[in-house]
């Protein structure tokens, strides 16, 4: 970029009062000793064209299919770029029209096209982020943004954390030094702006999904992703179904139906069905297990829209497990969407389960940790289970866990040993509250048994657990990431 050209442009902008000094209230409510108002350039076409040329020269890559200006000032600048470079442009409305096509984005595009964002000035980066989010939801690839002035208040870092690379023509300190050099401002004004920037260099933006970097690669942290967004992140159709129903039913509650008769099981499923995403069973506890029980259970799962989860905890070699899962007296593969299995035997167990599933849409949850006192699952064992899950994402939907064993949004963490009041039972069970399970232990799904089955009114108890569990999840996705470069809320 030609420095003299940039300097001249700054002086021109100063002359047309695009840069003002005093006391200004920003969109966020922050008081600022300066204000950069590039809207004024619409009355000065030559300066506007220079701004567009400088922005185009600053672009990080040479190949884009589209340009999109952030409303409003970015729009005419993007239009100039579009015309000069013969690249089609898009317009993202600030709000959807209530009539006609009701489209939020105007212009033609196809999924996968690369779009360059154009903005006049960034503070936190929230306006750029909002526009990018809309375009990404339409399937466009948006990785780069060019901005004329970076106020150096954390906007670039905030956008980087959401996968947007920001290049600015100049930062506020450089702009101020050009003005000072040319006698446009006093040293006091220069110092007051420097002081302001050094004490206001962090901002945050609200994002739908929080993201962080791992070895320089952008990864979305499971704990900060919405269930809704994970519908498409996962490789497994049942995990997608589960996320979908969790987000539409607003529940992360799985009831552990540890009852001994079919009548109790079916009555419980009907009572709590509206509040749950999964019904977990131990069918070998039932005294009167029959196909009729299963048929009725499947009908209730359809009626209330929940999945069936048999907590069989398979733990044998692949060949044996294939027979236990795909036959025997319970024929689990025929009716249970999900089953649990131990990682102990190695991944032959997954291959065995898959061979019995024989193309049916079924999934497995690996027991990585247990809630019981004295559990033998070491850190190494947990890592082994996680690796196994990563190798078989087309069959393993997640892990039974007591801590945040994976940040991969494809995996669902199921946490049992959840109760509102009790600390444990007399046989080694240990409890945590729904809030602690979700916020401290990273649970996506809370599993509650006796807290509901032994309540006077199981439906009312299920509603309480549902609300506690979901409120904790909502609190979690709003939380700040531990990563210091991450986006805050
Ligand atoms: O580590 C584990 C794994 C599975 N469970 C099962 O969850 C429920 C818990 O029932 P509560 O009545 O809420 O204690 C039960 O079916 C266990 O088999 C677990 O508790 N811990």
TrEMBL record:
<dbReference type="InterPro" id="IPR023031">
    <property type="entry name" value="OPRT"/>
</dbReference>
<keyword id="KW-0511">Multifunctional enzyme</keyword>
<keyword id="KW-0665">Pyrimidine biosynthesis</keyword>
<protein>
    <recommendedName>
        <fullName>Uridine 5'-monophosphate synthase</fullName>
        <ecNumber>2.4.2.10</ecNumber>
        <ecNumber>4.1.1.23</ecNumber>
    </recommendedName>
</protein>
<feature type="active site" description="For OMPdecase activity">
    <location>
        <position position="313"/>
    </location>
</feature>
<dbReference type="InterPro" id="IPR018089">
    <property type="entry name" value="OMPdecase_AS"/>
</dbReference>
<comment type="similarity">
    <text>In the N-terminal section; belongs to the purine/pyrimidine phosphoribosyltransferase family.</text>
</comment>
<keyword id="KW-0456">Lyase</keyword>
<dbReference type="GO" id="GO:0044205">
    <property type="term" value="P:'de novo' UMP biosynthetic process"/>
</dbReference>
<comment type="pathway">
    <text>Pyrimidine metabolism; UMP biosynthesis via de novo pathway; UMP from orotate: step 2/2.</text>
</comment>
<dbReference type="InterPro" id="IPR011060">
    <property type="entry name" value="RibuloseP-bd_barrel"/>
</dbReference>
<feature type="active site" description="For OMPdecase activity">
    <location>
        <position position="316"/>
    </location>
</feature>
<dbReference type="GO" id="GO:0004588">
    <property type="term" value="F:orotate phosphoribosyltransferase activity"/>
</dbReference>
<dbReference type="InterPro" id="IPR013785">
    <property type="entry name" value="Aldolase_TIM"/>
</dbReference>
<comment type="similarity">
    <text>In the C-terminal section; belongs to the OMP decarboxylase family.</text>
</comment>
<comment type="pathway">
    <text>Pyrimidine metabolism; UMP biosynthesis via de novo pathway; UMP from orotate: step 1/2.</text>
</comment>
<dbReference type="InterPro" id="IPR014732">
    <property type="entry name" value="OMPdecase"/>
</dbReference>
<feature type="binding site">
    <location>
        <position position="450"/>
    </location>
    <ligand>
        <name>substrate</name>
    </ligand>
</feature>
<dbReference type="InterPro" id="IPR001754">
    <property type="entry name" value="OMPdeCOase_dom"/>
</dbReference>
<keyword id="KW-0808">Transferase</keyword>
<feature type="binding site">
    <location>
        <position position="449"/>
    </location>
    <ligand>
        <name>substrate</name>
    </ligand>
</feature>
<feature type="domain" description="Orotidine 5'-phosphate decarboxylase">
    <location>
        <begin position="252"/>
        <end position="465"/>
    </location>
</feature>
<feature type="binding site">
    <location>
        <position position="258"/>
    </location>
    <ligand>
        <name>substrate</name>
    </ligand>
</feature>
<dbReference type="InterPro" id="IPR004467">
    <property type="entry name" value="Or_phspho_trans_dom"/>
</dbReference>
<feature type="binding site">
    <location>
        <position position="429"/>
    </location>
    <ligand>
        <name>substrate</name>
    </ligand>
</feature>
<dbReference type="Pfam" id="PF00215">
    <property type="entry name" value="OMPdecase"/>
</dbReference>
<feature type="binding site">
    <location>
        <position position="371"/>
    </location>
    <ligand>
        <name>substrate</name>
    </ligand>
</feature>
<keyword id="KW-0328">Glycosyltransferase</keyword>
<dbReference type="GO" id="GO:0006207">
    <property type="term" value="P:'de novo' pyrimidine nucleobase biosynthetic process"/>
</dbReference>
<feature type="binding site">
    <location>
        <position position="280"/>
    </location>
    <ligand>
        <name>substrate</name>
    </ligand>
</feature>
<dbReference type="InterPro" id="IPR000836">
    <property type="entry name" value="PRTase_dom"/>
</dbReference>
<dbReference type="Pfam" id="PF00156">
    <property type="entry name" value="Pribosyltran"/>
</dbReference>
<dbReference type="GO" id="GO:0004590">
    <property type="term" value="F:orotidine-5'-phosphate decarboxylase activity"/>
</dbReference>
<keyword id="KW-0210">Decarboxylase</keyword>
<feature type="active site" description="For OMPdecase activity">
    <location>
        <position position="311"/>
    </location>
</feature>
<dbReference type="InterPro" id="IPR029057">
    <property type="entry name" value="PRTase-like"/>
</dbReference>
């Amino acid at each position: 970029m030609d420095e003299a050209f940039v300097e001249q442009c700054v002086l021109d902008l100063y002359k047309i009062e695009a840069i003002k000094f005093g006391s200004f209230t920003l969109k966020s409510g922050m008081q600022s000793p300066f204000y950069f108002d590039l809207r004024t350039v619409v009355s000065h076409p030559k300066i506007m064209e220079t701004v567009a040329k400088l922005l185009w020269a600053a672009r990080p890559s040479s190949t884009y299919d589209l340009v999109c200006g952030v409303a409003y000032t970015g729009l005419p600048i993007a239009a100039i770029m579009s015309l000069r470079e013969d690249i089609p442009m898009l317009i993202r409305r600030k709000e959807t029209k209530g009539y006609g096509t009701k489209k939020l984005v105007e212009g033609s595009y196809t999924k996968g096209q690369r779009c360059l964002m154009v903005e006049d000035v960034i503070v936190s980066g929230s306006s750029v982020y909002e526009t990018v989010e809309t375009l990404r939801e339409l399937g466009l690839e948006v990785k780069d943004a060019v901005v004329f002035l970076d106020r150096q208040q954390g906007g670039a870092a905030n956008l980087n954390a959401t996968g947007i690379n920001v290049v600015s023509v100049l930062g506020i300190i450089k702009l101020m030094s050009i003005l000072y050099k040319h006698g446009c401002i006093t040293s006091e004004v220069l110092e007051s702006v420097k002081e302001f920037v050094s004490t206001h260099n962090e901002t945050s933006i609200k994002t739908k999904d929080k993201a962080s970097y791992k070895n320089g690669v952008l990864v979305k942290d499971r704990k900060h992703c919405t269930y809704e967004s994970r519908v498409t992140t996962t490789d497994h159709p049942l995990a997608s179904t589960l996320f979908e129903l969790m987000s539409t039913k607003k529940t992360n509650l799985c009831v552990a139906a540890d009852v001994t008769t079919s009548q109790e099981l079916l009555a419980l499923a009907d009572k709590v069905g509206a509040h749950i995403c999964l019904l977990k069973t131990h069918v070998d506890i039932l005294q009167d297990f029959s196909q009729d029980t299963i048929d009725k259970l499947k009908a209730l799962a359809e009626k209330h829209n929940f999945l069936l989860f048999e907590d069989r905890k398979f733990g044998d070699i692949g060949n044996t497990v294939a027979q236990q899962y795909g036959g025997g007296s319970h024929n689990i593969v025929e009716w249970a969407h999900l089953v649990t299995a131990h990682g102990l035997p190695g991944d032959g167990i997954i291959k065995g389960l898959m061979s019995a599933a024989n193309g049916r849409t079924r999934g497995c949850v690996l027991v990585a940790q247990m809630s019981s006192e004295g559990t033998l699952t070491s850190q190494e064992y947990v890592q082994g289970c996680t690796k196994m899950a990563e190798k078989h994402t087309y069959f393993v939907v997640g892990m039974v866990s007591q801590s945040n064993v994976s940040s991969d949004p494809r995996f669902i963490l199921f946490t049992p040993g959840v109760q509102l009041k009790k600390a444990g039972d007399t046989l080694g069970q240990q409890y945590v509250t729904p809030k602690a399970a979700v916020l401290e232990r990273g649970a996506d799904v809370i599993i509650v048994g006796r807290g509901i089955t032994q309540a006077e009114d199981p439906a009312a108890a299920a509603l309480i657990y549902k609300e506690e569990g979901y409120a904790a999840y909502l609190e979690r996705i709003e939380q700040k990431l531990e990563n210091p470069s991450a986006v805050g809320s």
